[in-house]
Each structure stands twice: as C-alpha cells, then as structure tokens.
Specification:
Blueprint (H helix, E strand, L loop, with lengths): L3 H28 L5 E5 L6 H17 L3 E5 L6 H8 L7 E6 L1 H8 L11 E16 L8 H10 L4 E5 L5 H13 L3 E5 L3 H9 L5 E5 H9 L4 E5 L25 E9 L4 H15 L2 H9 L3 E2 L4 H22 L5
Parallel strand pairs: 1-2, 1-3, 5-6
Antiparallel strand pairs: 3-9, 4-7, 4-8, 4-9, 4-10
C-alpha cells in the first residue's frame, strides 16, 4: 500500500492553508488600523518618551484615520509599562514608547517580568538627543569647572537627582562622577519632572536631564544649565559648552527614543507601522518641533532597531558592572 497520494493531498492542503493564512495577514495589514491604537508611555508625563509620542500622535491620527491614544503606566523605571506591552495582544494596536532606559533595566535588575529584547519587536528609532547638566540655583557655580571644584572640596556632601534607580540620568551622572573624579550622593525620584523640579528648587544639587525635558525651562531662565553632554555645542544654546570642553575629556551621553510592539506581532503589521511612523517623522512640522527641543528625528528599520537594543543592553551591563550601579 502506497501513501504517496495521501502525502500529495496533505501537501496540497497545507499549501492552500498557508496561502490563505498569508493572504489573511496581508489583508489584515492593508486594513490596519481598524480601531484606535494605544501608545503606552512607561514613565510620568512630560518626559522625553511622552513628549515625542505626543508630537507623533496628530500625524498618525491623520495618516491612519484612527485615534492614537497615549496612556501612562509609570513606575519601576519603566518596567510596569514595558511588562504590560510585552503581554499585550501582538496585533499592532498596543505599542510602547521607549527610551535608553529600556536597555538599562536588564543591566541592574536580576529579574525582570519580561525580556527587554525577546519580548518586543522593534519598529523604529524616533529620535536621539543630548542631555543638559542642570544645577541648583543655590550653588555659587556658573560652569562645570566650578561645580567639579566645589564637589572635590566637599566629597560626599553634594548630591545629584535622577529619574529613578537605573534611569539614564543616573547612568549619565555616574559616568560624570567616574570621569571627573568626584563623589556625589544619588537621590532617586519617580521620574524626570520630579528630579528636575527639585534641582531647580535647590533641594538637590545636580540633574542630567534629557534635552527635550529641560530646554524650555532653560530658555525661560527657570533652570540653570552649565553644560551639554554631546560632543559638540548645540545650535540652540551656542554659548553653552560641552562637558568635554569643561575639562572632563571624552565625556559623552546621548539619549535615544523609539517605538516597539509586542514580540510576535506580524511582520507585515510591524513594517506598515514603521513606514507610516517614518513618514510622520519626516514631515517638516515634526522635524522642526524636534529641532526646537534640541533633538534629531532619527529613523531605522525594525531589524536594526532590534539590534541596537541588544547592543545597548550589553553596553549598559558593562557600565553597571564598572560603576557598581545596582537596583535597590
């Protein structure tokens, strides 16, 4: 008895099923989105991940003809929001606005409720930008050299605020401590606005803030910036020196932002979202708005963004080990 006819029949049936499945996925991508899309921001309002998501929202509304909703799920250095999205239905309707902090968590926490690389599908980078070194108005310093001199004269008596344990702002400050040879006490907060507000009010001494979060306050004279963390001065503040120019050779800190979806989101959906987010990012109003915040609109393929996150996780693990940064 030969089973070849049965095998041929099975193979034919499998091919028909596969073609129907691929056709269904393609049709699904063509009609996406058919309902509102939610972008989860895993931090408190007014931070970089929130600001950039909100700039994109009206453009995506127009491109998709559907509402795009920004929802906050802050806490645990972004873990609560990231965990929520990692377990969401992988259909493209729940996205996560991330920053460099997403790649930092695996470096400082022994256990996370999700895998920062395997449980997400990268969509695209959205922006990169430097940070501003903000100091308390109560300190009698006008530049980074004076701050470093003061810190060296009072080891362990000055402090710095951060957006939380393991946040990008903590890593940026710890890198500054190591390279400048100063001893500052870490004061963690629940987010960027709180950390920035306390430094502006003189309750903490220094905060390394994402540019987008502090630039308007600096322009208005409400926050005192003494340096920028990029390798060259920024056009918007041409008189503000870099940290390197201020005597800390080789210092550089750049924040990045992007969008990810839950892992196993169909590739055609991921690619469709990527194409349309990139189209939104290239609109003159968006690039101008980003520019006004001192950041650059940057795009990438889903694959290259996945690789960037993997590379950054390894980089931050090394920085954490070298600096002794651990979650409380």
């Amino acid at each position: 008895f030969s089973n070849q006819p049965l095998q041929r029949s099975f193979a034919l049936g499998f091919l028909i099923w596969l073609s129907m499945l691929l056709g269904f996925q393609s049709s699904f991508a063509q009609t996406f989105p058919a309902k509102p899309v939610t972008i989860i921001v895993p931090f408190t309002p007014a931070g970089g991940a929130d600001t950039l998501a909100r700039i994109l929202v009206p453009r995506l509304n127009a491109l998709w003809g559907q509402s795009v909703i920004v929802e906050y799920k802050a806490g645990a250095s972004g873990q609560i929001g990231a965990d929520f999205v990692s377990k969401a239905n992988p259909d493209g309707y729940t996205l996560l606005s991330i920053s460099s902090a997403h790649a930092i968590s695996p470096a400082i926490y022994n256990k996370l409720p999700y895998d920062a690389t395997k449980d997400f599908s990268g969509i695209t980078l959205t922006a990169t930008g430097p940070a501003l070194v903000i100091v308390s108005p109560e300190l009698n310093v006008s530049n980074m050299r004076e701050f470093i001199a003061l810190a060296k004269s009072k080891p362990g008596q000055l402090n710095y605020s951060s957006a939380g344990v393991g946040s990008g702002s903590q890593f940026a400050a710890e890198l500054l401590k190591a390279q400048a040879g100063i001893d500052l006490v870490h004061i963690p907060f629940k987010g960027i606005p709180e950390a920035l507000t306390d430094t502006m009010a003189g309750r903490t001494h220094l905060f390394i803030s994402p540019y987008a979060s502090a630039i308007n306050l600096v322009r208005e004279g409400k926050a005192k910036a003494i340096a920028v963390t990029s390798t060259s001065r920024v056009t918007d503040l041409p008189n503000l020196p870099t940290v390197t120019e201020s005597g800390v050779q080789g210092y550089k800190w750049i924040f990045w932002y992007g969008l990810v979806a839950p892992a196993n989101t169909p590739r055609d959906i991921v690619q469709k979202i990527q194409v349309e987010v990139v189209a939104a990012l290239k609109q003159p109003q968006v690039t101008q708005r980003f520019g006004s915040l001192g950041i650059d609109a940057v795009t990438s393929s889903p694959e290259s963004f996945d690789q960037l996150i993997k590379d950054e996780v390894q980089l931050f693990k090394k920085l954490a080990a070298d600096s002794g940064i651990k979650a409380d």
